[in-house]
Amino acid sequence: MTPSARAVAVVAGGLLAGLALVLAHLLTGRSDLPAGEVVRALVGRSEHPAYEVIVLDYRLPRVLVGLGAGALLAVSGVLVQAVVRNPLAEPATTGVGAGAALAVTGTLVLWPGHPLVYPAALLGALATGAVLYVVGRRSFAVAGVLLGAVLAAVTSLLLVVDSAPIGVVLRWLVGSLNARTPVDWAQLWPWLVVVLPVAWLLASRLNVWALGEPAAIGLGLRAGPFLAVVLLVAVAAAAAAIAAAGAVAFVGLVAPHVGRLLVGADHRLLVPVSAVLGAVLLSLADLAAFSVSVQLPGLATDVSGVPVGAVTALLGAPVLISLVRRESRR
Amino acid sequence: MIIIPDCSVRSRPHSRTVLVTVAATALAAGCLLAALCLGQPSVGPAAALAAVTDPEHPLRVAVVEVRLPRALLGLVAGAGLGVAGLLLQDALRNPIAGPELLGVSSGATVVVAAIVVLGLGVPLALQPWLALGGALLAGALVLLAIGRTRDPAHVVLVGAAMSAACGGLVVAVVGLGTQGNVVVLFRYLLGSLAARGWPHLETVAPIVGAGLAGAWLLRRRIEALTLGDEVAAGLGVPVVRTRVAAVGLAALLAAAVAAACGPIAFVALLAPHLARRATGTTSTRRVLPLVAVAGGLLLVAADLAARRLLYPVEMPVGIATTLVGVPALLLLRRRRQPRPAVTG
Prior knowledge:
Chain A is mostly helical. Chain A contains 14 helices and no strands. Chain A has a single domain, classed as ABC transporter involved in vitamin B12 uptake, BtuC, CATH 1.10.3470. Chain A has helices at 3-27, 35-42, 49-84, 96-110, 117-135, 140-161, 166-174, 182-201, 203-209, 213-218, 223-245, 251-263, 267-291, 308-329. By secondary structure, chain B is mostly helical. The radius of gyration of chain B is 20 Å and the shape is globular. Chain B has 13 helices and no strands. At the A-B interface, helix 6, helix 7 and helix 14 of A face helix 5, helix 6, helix 7 and helix 13 of B. Chain A: Pfam families: FecCD (PF01032). Chain A: It is found in: Cell membrane.
């Protein structure tokens, strides 16, 4: 099968899987709803208003935000890896997650309980991206990690001074899809509509850039503006995803990696394939996180409601190891 | 014993190294004294020394039971971290290697967090060794990933990914605990010397001492590694064994410190760079004592600042070292290297 045929197959399969995930999410939850009731609630014909609230206001936004944030993280990962020319980079490498967390913490410390959290996260992430572009020209990877460390330290400092928002901020740092509302989805989907096509339009230039900077410049690519645009799109995608779901680790690393295994390094195929894979990956991990409920020895209560970021970290570690093995063999 | 000629890249008179080391030691002693004097209540140096020597002194508890072990722990932990950084940087020939960027610290943190949050009841003396297991595992994975590359960006990316994985694990562990554990957990994500007493010092000091002794014994071989694997092999140094030993020692040092103080970042990265800059030599064996002293000095001074700057709120020292360490590291690295043309 040619890579492009495989890409079509992967995208089609991914869309089917996404549909199955939506169904699975709608059917599972704390309260046990029969399938017929779920369908009736979806089309607005349920006789129980409570069912409509559960399905339309709790379950549907959660799965949609998960799918959308996963796609954005994966595309951001593709772009960051292309800029850094290293398959081990991911959106977190740019420090935007730490920037978003700092902005959220600052907002919560200054105005407790204020609904400014979403714009704060978005602006914090975007501002971090801007700083990175200015200071990181020499090595985006090193600068991003160091920038992230400094921002995280300032966040911790704020939390030491005022420890009230710790719970919220930790969930941001890890990433959680618990308690998403229709508002979250309304804030997320415009980003999907804008960022994903733009990333795809950049794909052929990313292929040229992958040849190396001298070759790319020789082929007529203007490195400065090109890098600025790619970084902007990558940061915007990561910022939108992080503002909606928190800084979920490894989706932006694993989805492009699996995508490369399936369709190769051509970015025109890699961008859509990674987006689909990221969406499925995050939503699947969320389903697992949501369904897990185990009794551990030594603990009083059942373990449940684990943030999805913890699950992706657990799943991501073995993938990281295999990735690393491949890298070291090269 | 293998005799290796003096192979410093920029050799300067040895007296400068001795001079700088003595000056740093004096500074560290001054910081130690200041750490004993400052606090609530603050006293003069004479009163502080009197409290140390006189068992009946009214400030005996504050100075000897609280301030002294904390300051000594800072010295010991800082020395251990500095030498860990030196071992990693020279054995891997990577200027940006350090336990915090190689995932070693975060591997240890996972274990410590699990012990604390799950209330496993592991005795204090055993904790560094369990933490060492986590540190070695994370460090081994990262080293496997890095392979033969010396590209700092690659190293940083692998380390960051490992730290992210460990961070996720820590949060997963905390998610297992009760709601009240969140604040406790948060404290364990930050390196701090607060509320550490003699038992912590007694746990860490022997391990750090052993680690420093090991580094001293290996100093010539590691210095040979800085010349390149082929040259080192030509000089009769077992390259792989030396590298593994150096990394293992660094992991031991970092794990011992992380078990007692949590992840304190950037002391390990910064101390060797500062020492090399101050002495003008890159020779491992020459800067080794200074790196230990400089690490201790950095950590005690940072802890002093962390205690006093925002008084009455106390800043965990890990925050202070990061806020100071990153800009300092960037400055130190910027002057040394010419700007490469290629981004990456």
